[in-house]
Amino acid sequence: MKRKASAVWHGDLKSGKGALSTESGALAQTQYSFSTRFENGVGTNPEELIAAAHAGCFTMALSFALSSAGHPPESIETTATLTLENLPEKSWTVTAIHLDTTAKVPGVAADAFAQFAAGAKANCPISRLLNTTITLDAKLAG
After folding, report:
1. CB 74 within 8 A of CB 106
2. Which of 22, 80, 92, 119 has the most crowded CB, counting CB atoms within 10 A?
3. How far is CA 134 from CA 1, 39, 47, 78, 86, in A?
């Protein structure tokens, strides 16, 4: 399986701008720029897209693990918070991603849920791709 995305950039780093597109059409000429990456401009940025990919991948992996064990979830909500820091020896570096997930899963004990969540964190393809610290806060919804 292969997935494609493309980027186009015009101009220098600070005043230039670009567009991102995906083969699926989910992104179509979506704006990105210096201000969307390092300030609060309108558009997206690579780090936001990585966080979205990680949240989606982890959530699907957790759903799969729970369902495979006979505990299909009613819902799972995950927020991935990516930290980008300007390190003196490395320049801009993704130093951490924190996954915060809440799930409604009838019939599963909290300790079992924590194990399923830890396994999903370790084994989702995006987690395995990333070379950074990944932390997790997983809880069951009432």
Report:
1. yes
2. 80
3. 26, 24, 14, 14, 18
Between CA 90 and CA 107, with CA 127 as vertex, the angle to 5 degrees is: 145
pTM listed for this prediction: 0.93
Q: Would you say 21 and 5 are in contact if contact means Cβ atoms under 8 Å apart?
A: yes
Q: What is the pLDDT of residues 38-81, one digit of tens each?
A: 988 889 999 999 999 999 999 999 999 999 999 999 999 999 99
CA–CA gap between residue 11 and residue 4 (Å, rounded): 24
Q: Which residues contact 21 (CB under 8 A, 6 or more apart)?
A: 5, 6, 7, 27, 28, 29, 30
Q: Are residues 70 and 121 in the same domain?
A: yes
pLDDT for 41: 87
State whether 32 and 85 are in the same domain: no
Q: Which amino acid is at 129?
A: L
Domain that holds residue 92: 46-140
